[in-house]
Amino acid sequence: MKTTTKKMLSLLCLGMLASTVGNTLASAEVIDNGNGTLTIDNSNGTSDSSASVKVSGQVGFDNTNPKSPDPKDPNTWLNIDIPTEMVFASTEASGFKDIEGDAGKLVNRSGRPVEVSIADYVDASGGVADTKGIASLTLTGGVTTPSFDLKNFKSGVLTVLDSPHATGQNAPIAGKSEVKLNLSGKVDPSLKKVHMLNNQIELKFKALDKDGKPLNP
Where is the sequence biased in composition, kind Polar residues (predicted)? Predict the structure, then answer.
């Protein structure tokens, strides 16, 4: 009989202990407020006195990421590949009357669209461009400007390139993020012998907003 009573008391004690532990665990008040904060409330008998908070961040500016915030200086967005040289020559197949040349590629890597303009076309010393022996010379391949007259030069927009990321613009602006350029034209028939030209193009770049409009500096 005594043994049975002891067993019953032991079971009762275990039940009370389990209930107490369960209540203690249930009374823990760590509340997720759903707004990026937690509330630790020890008024129900808990004694939490520490917490771990995640720390994350970014240093520097990633101009290839369309989600990056717009910087104060819109030029910070510029990230574009350009050729180091554009080369042309008259072709033997045309009896040296036609001009053809590889002008390289423009590749926009920015998280925003970029407008590319030709600001100037000059000789190597910065003076008036040498056009001796040239009847016509055109830079072609631009997305928004199919051809650009270098013989009768006037500054202007060469092309607009989309961001390579679809989210870089609200809708496609130019439809391409890169373009291959070419030079073409005609030789002046009055040219009597070979003439070497040494000119240079001054390119200018402008970052655009997601609607294709210039970002305010």
Answer: 42-67
